[in-house]
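Predict the holo structure. Ligand: zinc ion.
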Amino acid sequence: MADLDKVIHELVAANRILANEGVVDAYGHVSMRHPHDPSLFLLSCSRSPELVVPEDIMTFRFDGTTADGRKDNPYLERFIHCGAYEANPDVMAVVHSHALAVLPFSISSVPLVPVIHTGTHAGEHIPVWDSQDKFGDTSMLVQNVEQGRDLALTLGKNRVALMRGHGFTAVGRSLGEVLKISIYLPQNAQVYMDALRLGGTIKCVTPGEMAIRDEGGPGGRELGRALDYWAHRAGCSHYLHYGKK
Ligand SMILES: [Zn+2]
């Protein structure tokens, strides 16, 4: 079970990192697919990410039920994660955030697109999921399997979906990749919004530039450098490097 322990500690580090970078606050969450059973995933009980410790990490099935017999209170929106893992076997980690900077693009007809080099991690196309389309008036949260599946359908093979008036969901082929996407997405949105306010012609990242930026894949040395930096800033390097001598 040594590598499960390591993965749980990395997931705790991811919670602390996202909180420290302002991507999540009291709300929002991050999960990982279970390293031993791809039909399960790991997610904290209902606790703010900055406060998550290894004992909080629970194991869930894709129907939102717990697979470890724990009775702790789960996140209401765990179905976001259920839908994303069920729909795409390549998804290894999921982030859900209410980051303010992306919200204007979730309610406007102006699509969020990559405009800065770090914004390319989110991919070329960022669809918007509107709970109103299929479910009418709701709490606007993703609180059941059907809503989670519908969100996953909108997400498709993209890396990010905005959620109208609510936030975003990002998926990654690794934990590091989904952190990178989630940390830079609000920054990209902020720069784009500032440029829109400036007026004039805006030059977005080109498809060719996107393709070159994507050549590194989901891992690599460059990502390790960022993970070390984010963990150091968040004071959680001991979780990120758990078990390493
Ligand atoms: Zn939410």
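The chain has one domain: 2-240. The two ends are 18 Å apart (CA to CA).
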